[in-house]
Specification:
Blueprint lengths: L6 E4 L7 E7 L9 E10 L3 E3 L1 E17 L7 E18 L2 E3 L2 E10 L8 E8 L2 E17 L5 E8 L26 H4 L6 E6 L3 E2 L4 E9 L8 E16 L2 E16 L6 E6 L14 E2 L3 E12 L3 E9 L1
Parallel strand pairs: 13-20
Antiparallel strand pairs: 1-11, 2-3, 3-8, 4-7, 5-6, 5-10, 9-10, 10-11, 12-14, 14-17, 15-16, 15-19, 18-19, 19-20
Length: 315
């Protein structure tokens, strides 16, 4: 087996008489996977194991600052925590262990609905500044030994987002993600063009190319060329209480096109490249107990200025 690195915390001061280590069978997992681990106990002097337990824990924490209302300068620091997973298991029954190395295998199935490991750092989201959000998992092993001594080991567990199967959509077939007409009031007006658009698939990864099929219908029958613009936005909403909600939106990337007259339907392409020139890189769509990060693609054609927004998932 290939084991990931472990983090060891020994509560006993002075010389080490027993050590504990956790090794996982894989570097990363997906929700619903089977996690296999080995717990290694190294004994120098005999130890009576009064209890040998393990915990799979999942926790999301958020910290932020706000301008202080109680003093002229400075900021107040706030934090909240949500422990959404705390499963306990028995690693081994109580017994005496003599000098040597002991290996205890552990098998655990991760819940199928667990969110992926996540970290978010923002300068500001609404009135919230220096926002830091982290969602993670650990395998915590605890051995209660002689004279009340506790020996512990912590191993981080990394969960990745599941890979969703996608397929190209043909022609103007509507994508499963919301993707169609905006400004329906324009459709019924005479001599006013309107815009229809759809994605070739609902979900994308960084460095992939988003293809948008568009149709601009004009009752005027105009034959002039026009300009089309694609803008990808990241929308972040943070909720830390019933009445505490902040949100912000930023432009991730943009591309401008010159479309020939009579090109109906036509296709626009936008490459989802990682951030350049110091700009933030493209982050995946995500939703947790505190944070909702979504993306939308704004499609604009002018003249006359018809616009539609398409929901898009970044994996």
């Amino acid at each position: 087996m290939a084991y990931s690195h472990s983090v060891l915390r020994n509560a006993r001061s002075g010389s080490v008489k027993w050590t504990l280590r956790v090794a996982l069978d894989r570097d990363t997992y997906h929700a619903g996977d089977i996690l296999q681990a080995n717990v290694f106990l190294y004994v120098v002097e005999p130890v009576h194991c009064n209890g040998f337990t393990g915990f799979i824990r999942g926790e999301e924490t958020i910290t932020w600052t706000e301008k202080s209302t109680r003093r002229a300068v400075g900021a107040e620091v706030y934090s909240q925590k949500n422990e959404f997973l705390n499963d306990k298991m028995i690693v081994a029954n109580p017994r005496m262990h003599g000098p040597g190395e002991y290996i205890f295998p552990v098998v655990y199935q991760l819940h199928s609905t667990l969110p992926a490991t996540f970290q978010l750092n923002c300068h500001s989201v609404g009135v919230m500044n220096s926002v830091h959000v982290q969602l993670g998992y650990v395998f915590h092993v605890c051995l209660n030994a002689n004279e009340g001594v506790v020996v512990e080991a912590l191993q981080e567990i990394i969960l990745q987002e599941a890979v969703l199967p996608t397929r190209p959509l043909m022609g103007l077939e509507v994508a499963p993600a919301p993707a169609l007409v905006v400004q329906p009031d324009l459709v019924s007006q005479d001599n006013v063009p309107y815009l229809l658009a759809s994605l070739d698939k609902p979900a994308f990864r960084s460095a992939e190319t988003v293809r948008v099929r568009c149709r601009v219908n004009s009752r005027s029958g105009g034959d002039e060329s026009f300009v089309a613009i694609l803008r990808l936005y990241e929308d972040i909403n943070i909720t830390v209480g019933p009445s505490k909600r902040s949100e912000c939106s930023r432009l991730v990337c943009k591309r401008r096109f010159q479309v020939a007259a009579g090109a109906a339907p036509f296709e626009l392409a936008l490459e989802l490249a990682a951030g350049s020139d110091g700009e933030p890189s493209l982050e995946r769509t995500f939703c947790s107990s505190f944070v909702e990060r979504r993306h939308h693609l704004a499609v604009e054609c002018f003249p006359p200025g018809s616009t539609t927004d398409l929901a898009i998932v970044i994996l």
